[in-house]
Amino acid sequence: MRLLGAGRWITAVGLLLLAGVYVRALAFTPIERAQGLAQKIFYLHVPAAIWAEAAMVLVGLASIFYLFLKDPRLDRFAEASAEAGTVFAAIVLTTGPIWGKPIWGTWWSWDARLTLTLFLFLLYVGYLLLRSAVADPGARARYAAVLGICGMCLVPFIHFSVYMFRTLHPMPIVLKPSSPSLPGSMLATWLFSLGVFTLLYVGFVIQRYALSYLREQLEAAGEVGHV
Amino acid sequence: MEGGGAVGAVAEFVRHAWSVARKDLLVEFRSRTAILSAVVFTVLVLMVFNFGRDPTAVAAVDLAPSILWVTFTFAAMLALNRAFQLELENQALEGLLLAPISRGSIYLGKLLANLVFVGAVEAIGLPLFALFFNVRILPVILPLVAVIALATVGFVAVGTLFSAMTARTRFAELLLPVLLLPFMIPPLIWAVLTTASLLAGRPLSEAGGWLRLLAAFDILFVVLAFVLFPATVSE
Lengths: 227, 235
Hints:
The complex is a heterodimer. Chain A is 77% helix and 0% strand. By secondary structure, chain A is mostly helical. Chain A starts with a helix and ends in a 6-residue tail after the last helix. Chain B contains eight helices and no strands. The radius of gyration of chain B is 19 Å and the shape is globular.
């Protein structure tokens, strides 16, 4: 199937470029004075966090359109986006503590943004669990869409409530109303990494989309039961 | 004339919702099994809390907001699981859907019945909580009840929607908490903070920000659940 092949290629290129991000971040980007080498994780952590959140918004939007149009492609996309989002949220939750231990002195703190990411991760897991618990494809798509829309609406609330707490987390330095306060070489590395993560998201989603299409075909042919 | 028609339609809508709610509450009132189990469960959770803390190390009043809200969370979960389970027997849900009433009024009716149910459990749980943990709630009873009501409306609205979905899946009893808890935690955070500030003798106005968030959450999710509900039952 061509779509699956395309997804594999994009992911492969993305992974190769990810190695490039490491090389550029470690060898060609200056070391931050206050945090030292630990700051390097920023180039992975923040792009992953951006896509972990954006994937949830895309799940929600696809879900809204699904309920109106009942187009199975939208449902497949929502599922694929949720699966990719789970991976990105897991990356954020893994890289965060690795950075937190040397800088904060603790692996985990109930910090606003950590909590937000954990919420996102659990929302994704719940979404995928609900999908796996419904056998009928029509009901599965509708239920998932309902949960996806609710999930998307929950994110701003978590945002609001977590930002009202005092936080240890570094404040945004790139995505903020005023211009980025980051030296040019660091910004370039970061933007490169954001591009690579975007590519990875696209690659993951295309692959999962193609796979769920194939699975549906098999289910329709009665080759496999619903897993 | 048109205005009169709209008012009539709304009145009929509310009447239908009330019939659905009354049906559920009547079933509940006749058997009283669920409400009794929920109340006993609440008492047991309160007992678990009592033995789950070291009374010499932690004063009850420091833990009080957490005890109150964790107890209510679990009790609400039990109640919500029951809401649509009721309709599975003898395919009662199909009958309900065939009735000449809108899906919206079914949701509203279910929501009302759940609110009454959870509210009843809370009304019994609150004095018991005050009694067991020697918390002086009387001076702040009105604002406290208002906070409880605000938080309860929010999570029961989402819970009613979700239980319509999970009731017809495998592992319904387990899936509902997994889906619902992420949605319960934000209102829970605000409710716990407000309760703590109230029990510490601070005026309600200090918690204005949390209350506004609670109210916004309620409005958004009641409307959203109302709009989305038809998608969970239509075939």
